[in-house]
Structure formats: C-alpha cells, structure tokens
DNA sequence: GAATCATAAC
DNA sequence: GAATCATAAC
C-alpha cells in the first residue's frame, strides 16, 4: 500500500466544484464535467467525468458490467454527454489546425473514446482523445500503448454485452486483468495509422507521429480543396 | 566493464575527417575541430576538439597537469582556437536572438568554457556553452549540475598552476575525483543567474530558466535602445 | 553520451 | 497520475 494516495483524487475537484475551474472545465451540467486532461497525450485530450458519487468510485469494468445489473439510465446519460463532447473536441482540434473545417470533420475518423483498463486516478473518467498522439507530454511507451492497445477500453465496446463486460469482477479477476495488461504493455509499439512496428524505439515512433499528424491534418485540407 | 564502448568514440570522426561533416562542423584546421554538440544543453553549445592523436586520448586533469610537464605549445594553440571560436559562438547566439547585436556582446558575460571532470566521450573536448541552459535536451539534474558546479572545469582555471591541476593523477586519485563528483551531483540545483535554490525540483528549475533567458536576451536589447 | 526500464515517494 | 533516481545495454 502506498503511503499517500491523495494524487488519486486529483480529478475530484472537477466533479465537486466544476464552476471553480473555468480554465480547466469545458462543459458541465448536473451529471457530468468535461475537462482538459492536464497532461494531454494528443493534440486534443479531454476527460468526461460522471459526477454521481457512486459511479465516480467504480471501476470501468464494473460500471457497465452485465452481471452487475448495468444502470441503463446512466449509460444513456453518459452517451448523451459524449455526444455533447464531440463537437467540443472537434472545435479544440480546429483551434490547433485552423485549416481544418469544423463542419466536415468526422469525429470517429479523428478521435477515440474510452476508459483505461487500469486507471491511476480513482474518479471514473472517459478519455476523449484525438488519434494523433502528438504531444510533448507523451513521454513513455506506457503512455502510447495505453491508448493503442486493449488497455484502452472502447466505450461502445464496453457498453455492448460482450466478453469485456461479462467478466466476473472479483479480486482474482482484477489480478488476471493486471497480468494481461502487463503483457500488453510489454508488446511492441506500432504506428496507430500505418501499423509500422517501432518495437521499443520510442524516439523513432515520436518522429513518425509528427509525420502522420502532418499527413492527416493536411490531407483533410487537400480533400476540401478538391 | 561495459560490453560495448563504441559510443565513447562518437566524436572521433570529427577529428579524423572534419571535412566529411559540413553540417556538424563549424570550423577546423590541422589542429582543432569545432562542432555543434549533438545534444545541446543550452541555446549555443559547441565542442572544441584537439585533433592530436595523443592529446585526444588524455583526461582533462592530465592534459594540463603541472606534474605531468604540461605542453605549453598545445595550451597556447588551444587558447588561440578558443579565441577563434568565441565569435562563432556569439554569431550562433545572434542567429537565435536576432535582436542581440553581435559587436556589443561580451563573450564572458554570455558563455562558459571548460571540460567535464568526468567525460562520457573519450575524445578530449572543451565545451563552449551559453550560460542559459535553455534547451529541450537538458533533461536531467546531472545535465544541469555538470555545467553549474565544479564538475565543469573552467579552462582558464585549469591552465593556471593551481590546486586543480596539481593533483597526482593515478588511479587512486581518479577514484577520489569520482567520489567528489558524485557528491557534487547530489547537491541542490540552483539558478545559475540568481542563485535561487530549486533543490531537486527539475521541472521548476526548467520553467525558471525560461524566465532568466528571456531576461538576459531581452535586457541586452533594452541596453542597446538606451 | 542517450534511452529504456524499474522503483520509490508524492 | 508525474517525477526523481538508479541501472543495463548500446
Ligand atoms: Zn486515466
Ligand atoms: Zn505510420
Ligand atoms: Zn563531455
Ligand atoms: Zn534565477
């Protein structure tokens, strides 16, 4: 056990008093808060935080688990909040790349939405993140893999009644998940776009991500021209 | 003993074939090569490499050691090469900060010249480095301390007949030096300009270095205006 | 010399 | 979650 776990509650302030952090909070209502990730791992990286005091404490594996009698009302509220977050995320991308045209951007082409299988921060949070992974804050293999492997639990996969959320969630199962994820973290790094294998060469991957970002964010402009 | 020490000879190509590396080499003659440090730890960071095949293998403590009958001809050649390097370094700084006026810059106010007490690369090299330590490549406490402590052997101090170069250079003495330097590396990080103590908070130091660099490189412009 | 990985302490 | 420190392998 760690001596001081207060950092694990770093997001709690945003669900408790979203009105106090106008520089960090992009949107809030009675049920959700949307904030910038303080250490963004891509050009756009937002967090969607359920404000419900029970839900916020739950594991992403548990909160939608079928054996746990999933709260369909909550699921639909969350999906609705994600729909509200999509244009916000797109707008953030357009701020970074003014040549992009907001109305023509397909969210699914540019973004991913999901939970980390083993979050470090205890308040339940959905990552809404652009696919580029172009960021100074992306500093380690673990950062990259955590968004480009089964460590990222796609929100829509999780909500479906599939293998992901039919696991028995007991401490044995959490131990198994931890073991799986450790294996996943040890795998090679591959480009999210073209699949090129960078093995453990993080620096080369970083250089390549610049090229891919230039391509996707310019390509769109070219498409618009033609 | 390390299994593969080839990285220690990374600078050898520049003294062997300076003409082959026009992108890296700023100046060379029959006795010296001046190159960009490949991982600059400040806005301007150059290396002066003696091309003599004996001198290049020597330790900075040994090459000027009085008990070792110092080669005064070599010393003077090196000092002359440093004099040639000074305007080059100043020019590099002006390229980064075009508001600076080349002719009015006092080298000693903006730069340091010296050896690392315990170099990682085996070819003898003098660092000519701007004092700012503002660089993305400055990533660790050791990087910073290595230029802001007795780990940096000031060239002119070393040439003087003083305590620094009167040490008996045997393996016992090298062991003592290594122990001293380890202590030095464990000390707090302090701002090179104002002396503010950042202890082990490297991130805060980095932020502060931005402020100090803005001040020194703008200050000069103000002086010129008045 | 840099970079990857593991490990505390917060 | 980030950041400091230590340790291999190159
Ligand atoms: Zn997380
Ligand atoms: Zn690619
Ligand atoms: Zn060196
Ligand atoms: Zn200062």
Automatic annotation (TrEMBL), chains A, B:
Q: Determine if DNA-binding is one of this entry's keywords.
A: yes
In this chain the Aprataxin C2HE/C2H2/C2HC zinc finger domain maps to 148-213
Spell out where the chain crosses the membrane.
Answer: none
InterPro entries per the UniProt record, alphabetical: HIT-like, HIT-like_sf, Znf-C2HE
A GO-annotated cellular component: nucleus
Q: Where in the cell is it found?
A: Nucleus
Pfam families reported in the protein's UniProt record? HIT, zf-C2HE
Domain HIT stretches: 21-133
First-listed, main subcellular location of the protein, grouped into a coarse class: nucleus
Q: GO biological process: what's one of them?
A: single strand break repair
Q: Does the keyword Protein transport apply?
A: no
Q: Which domain of life is it from?
A: Eukaryota
> In the record, what terms sit under GO molecular function?
DNA 5'-adenosine monophosphate hydrolase activity; DNA-3'-diphospho-5'-guanosine diphosphatase activity; double-stranded RNA binding; GMP binding; guanosine binding; mismatched DNA binding; single-strand break-containing DNA binding; single-stranded DNA binding
Keywords from the UniProt entry: DNA-binding, Metal-binding, Nucleus, Zinc
Kindly provide the name given to this protein in its UniProt entry. HIT-like protein
Organism of this sequence: Ascoidea rubescens DSM 1968
Taxon lineage: Eukaryota, Fungi, Dikarya, Ascomycota, Saccharomycotina
């Amino acid at each position: 056990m760690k001596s001081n776990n207060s950092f694990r509650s770093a997001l709690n302030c945003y669900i408790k008093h979203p009105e106090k952090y106008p520089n960090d909070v992009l949107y809030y209502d009675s049920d959700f808060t949307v904030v910038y990730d303080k250490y963004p791992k891509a050009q756009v990286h937002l967090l969607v935080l359920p404000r419900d005091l029970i839900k916020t404490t739950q594991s992403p594996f548990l909160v939608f688990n079928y054996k746990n009698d999933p709260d369909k009302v909550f699921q639909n509220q969350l999906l609705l909040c994600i729909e509200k977050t999509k244009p916000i995320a797109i707008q953030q991308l357009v701020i970074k790349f003014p040549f992009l045209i907001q109305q023509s951007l397909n969210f699914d082409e540019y973004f991913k939405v999901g939970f980390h299988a083993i979050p470090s921060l205890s308040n339940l949070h959905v990552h809404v993140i652009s696919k580029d992974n172009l960021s100074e804050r992306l500093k380690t293999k673990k950062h990259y893999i955590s968004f480009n492997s089964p460590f990222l639990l796609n929100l829509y996969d999780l909500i479906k009644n599939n293998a992901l959320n039919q696991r028995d969630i007991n401490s044995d199962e959490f131990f198994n998940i931890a073991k799986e994820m450790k294996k996943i973290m040890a795998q090679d790094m591959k480009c999210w776009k073209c699949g090129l294998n960078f093995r453990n060469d993080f620096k080369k991957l970083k250089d390549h991500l610049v090229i891919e970002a230039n391509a996707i964010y310019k390509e769109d402009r070219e498409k618009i021209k033609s």
